[in-house]
Specification:
- The chain is mainly α.
- Helix content is 59%, strand content 0%.
- The protein contains eight helices and no strands.
- Helix 5 packs antiparallel against helix 6.
Length: 160
Amino acid sequence: MVTEQEIKSRKFRSDFEKEKLSYQVSGEEMRMFSEKKRKLAHLINNYVLKFETEYHLSRNKTAEKIEENCQQSWDTYRKIINGTSKTSRIALYKFCIGMGLSRKEADEMFALTEEGSLTDDNIGDYIFVRALGQDSIFSFIKEFEKYTGKRIALRDRKEK
């Protein structure tokens, strides 16, 4: 759990201070990005399979339980595993907390993202690291929304 005093006492990079990226990449760099994306999808799938086996669940029950634990649509994780969607940082925050992963496991996963490893100057990363292994998914979502102003709670599908 983070406190307002903690957040105010730290300097975080704003969205406008992101480093300028070049969109010109070599074939080798593209292969590296593709390989990292594939490794991350494989890692997430391994955690899902481990969860499924540990609790003796069918794939549908596994999907329901992960959606409940992570407060993220199962479709998000299914698309990541299938390679049809990139992994958002928020989906990964929620997966790590909801699945009860360790800091080491989370670091391994974030190192494979396009945005890279967890940092102290990213407010989302900071809130996530403080919540990891300590807070419920609901506490994390509440704090994340409070301090970043970004809504990340799972929307109720019945409202549509």
